[in-house]
Amino acid sequence: MNDGILALDAASLAAAVRSGEVTAVEVVETYLAQISVQEPEVGAFLSIDAEAAISAAAALDRARESGEELGPLAGVPVALKDNLCTTGFPTTAASRILEGWIPPYNATVVDRVLAAGGIAIGKTNLDEFAMGSSTENSGYKITRNPHDLDRVPGGSSGGSAAAVVSRMALLALGSDTGGSIRQPASLTGIVGLKPTYGRVSRYGLLAFASSLDQIGPMAATVKDAALMAEVIFGHDPMDATSLAVPVPALVDGIEGGVRSLRIGLVSNLLEVAAPAVAAAVERAAAALAGEGATVETVAIPELSLGLPAYYVVAPAEASSNLARYDGVRYGFRGEGATAEEMMVSSRSEGFGAEVKRRIMLGTYALSAGYYDAFYLRAQRVRSLVRSAFQEAYSRFDLLLSPTSPTTAFKIGERSDDPVEMYRSDVCTIPSNLSGDPAISVPFGKEGGLPIGVQLMGPALAEERLLRAAYALEAGWSGE
Amino acid sequence: MGEWEAVIGLEVHTELRTATKLFCGCPNAFGVEPNTSVCPVCLGLPGSLPVLNAKAVELAITVGLALSSRIQPSQFHRKNYFYPDMPKDYQISQYDVPVNAGGAVALRSGKVVGIVRAHLEEDTGKLVHRGGGGRIGGAEYSLIDYNRSGVPLLEIVSEPEISSAEEAKEYVSELRAILVATGASDGRMEEGSLRVDANVSVRPSGSAELRTRVEIKNVNSLRSLGRAIGYEIERQIAVYEGGGSILQQTRHFDEASGETLPLRAKEEANDYRYFPEPDLPPISPLPAEVERIASELPLLPAGRRSRLFELVEGASPDQVEVAIAEEVWPYVTASIDFGVAPELVLARAANELVALIGDAGLLTPLRFAEVVALEERFSPSQVKLLLKGAVGFDGTVEELVARVGLSSSGAEDARAMIKEVVEANPEEWGRFVAGDAKVGGFLLGQVMRKFGRAISGAQARAALDELASGAAGE
Amino acid sequence: MTSGISKADVVHVARLARLRLSSGEIAMYQEQLSRILDLVGEMDDDRLAVMPAMAHTQDLVNVLREDVPRPGLERERLLGSAPDTEGEFFRIPKILGEPE
Ligand SMILES: [Mg+2]
Ligand SMILES: [Zn+2]
Question: pTM for the full model?
Fold first, then answer.
């Protein structure tokens, strides 16, 4: 039965648990066994609580036996990025400054997953405070790409991606500020959706850049991602930026196809990609056209301005969001004879190099004399990017591009050069700046390494995005 | 000191009277157990997000309307600086687009002080310093209570148009009265719900220059404010006359010595790195909502004042000030509406009511009106007795009159009894009328001995006082 | 736009951000931040002058909460995860100066 359990997608697994065909405990034990094999090599998790997972599963089974209707994720093992607050696990954002901190509350998304019957199997590794594209910036460990253990899984949601692709969890939650869901999904060969800003409550997400951060699903298939999206979407009164709009049915219409959809292939983003990646995107375009979509090439040069703007806005917000880690109320406290010295020690010893780099950059961009040239200018670029998108979406239903310019790179290969690392986010950043949804879908491989393609859509167009992603997924037979 | 004039601007922070804090549902409570009115939001726990309290916005607009400010669309910003009583190490405040812009406060003297802005922001937690006498300077360590963290504040910034310590006090007390009248604040300076910082500079009289200003913090009463500003003006004049110059600095008022003392100088100028708060969408007050708030605005102190001066020609300004006070005003309006002569209302409110108001008990505004209206039937001293009696009496007015022993027949009888005793003791009576209050006891004793239970002590006292005031007036 | 950032800038920014840097780190950040600022310098387009600064991606306005109390957190739980406490308070070393 174990291999059978691992072969089921989320909807089928939850259906099997709901009907009693398998028990949630069997499911969790199967996944824990998988973890015991995979985790020593991959290193996807920062914390796992097998006992709690089994007892949550047992409670679910008892509820079913007593006639209770179980939810859409009944018994499904879910991995949670460690920047989501959980009362059952420490929450560190992979930073030493929060070592051992157990939040007194759950993030809204965590509550929703649990209420839907999902089993929180563990907390996944990330670049410290989600700042990075390789998961090498974790304060605790390096996560490896299951396709090639010498390579990175991407980041910052690298732990969640690695957990899903090695079947240590069936679904995962990630967060995406500049591509942190889509890029690791691309590098590990899974599906990652960054929803419209405001679709998913950020309450309980340790903030990196508040105007860009968005939580989203990571899954092995488009349908699984859609199922997870239905669970976590929806208004939350605890988040003032959460949208009070109805949640569309995402799974039901997913097989609707792309006939008559107008899709723009973004040529200037294609140009930055490695040849194999560009070729995969072109094959994806052809596949969509083959399914009845109209595909046309379009240049949107404004999107390239997104990258420099992002590296002002995100660090600026981060410098403020991360001020609270001062050793006073929770987390790591450094030595100091005075409160001022103690705060400086706590921050200097508690944060890693990349986090400090971005705090410094953001502080500089906001400081007197530089605000107009950096922060204000970057906010104007956001308007420009958004209006360029709006113009494009008046002619196209969706846009197609690479997710990442390259496939997974070697561990350590880019860590000496932050700028080179930053440049790899060029395709994913624009949708964060505009607040629009985007998804990465596996479409091809190069030298055994997965390639993802990105579909972008206008605000609230997740249903269309998932439908096209599903068509793409079906159009690629794998290798 | 004719050659110098002071230039003073005041920043008044007032806590708003909401049920909950500005960005979370924690009770906005004073004096509860330390660190019990807290949640992830007001403790700035990782992952928490602010959601704006509608009531705080409404109160801010109420005050803005009361100050004749322009109510405008606004946006919160983050003011970034590190301090351990501030959980997020930034304060959510309003910066270039405050909810209320401009405005004015008219002082009793007729002077009008301009308002720059009145904006919403969150309060910090409270530090308790241990060791070194509880002062920040010599303390060994500090403790933090975050109950106050996130309590809504309205910061009201005046133009630098105040020119003396006395005027500063007048401004604050007028502003305070406005805040209390609108229900926005309880105005308690001692409890810290109203806090004043003063920016003070001096310049040669008649000049238009603005010299270096000094900010005085930590004044917690009107009296201290006056003393602190007065001291600072003198100090600055002395420095200039001695050929020195004033440093831009923050000074703290020391109650004990009456001096302002410099706070530890900062190594560098502050750089708050303000930027729009991404977690909070902008506010854009709906015109209909602003109109509704305006229509519900109570009569403000200035309006109350002019109404009374209109009703009572040549009214005593002191009596008027007492009558317009927040706790007195409902009694005044109830009585005037009841048809009592305004002069009389003013006199009874300023003299008798004020003494009772701290513990008014069952003496409601309506009851006050009913009793004061009886002054057609009873003497002033009897009315005073009735007011006192009303504090603890729950019945009709006539029952109250009977209870105090002033039902018409009773009063008549009492007057007769007193007359009898007075005529029997002419010498003592003469002394009493002349002002020797001690003899009153003797006279009352005689009444009680002679008539016993037929008259109450209060009745006797009232009749005696009445007779005496009649005799003295002759 | 700017090219490069001075050592003094790095020191100033570190102080604002409450970070202590070794001299090696100062040199490293000076070099790296300068290169990042070069990247940031690519924000160049004639249309930027007429573009509004965009603080929010959404057009939300007046998102307000009713003034109704909600239960908060248990004090023991909060103090339990604090680095240092005394009685019912959070405890910190002595404070040198007051904030502005
Ligand atoms: Mg302020
Ligand atoms: Zn709270």
Answer: 0.91
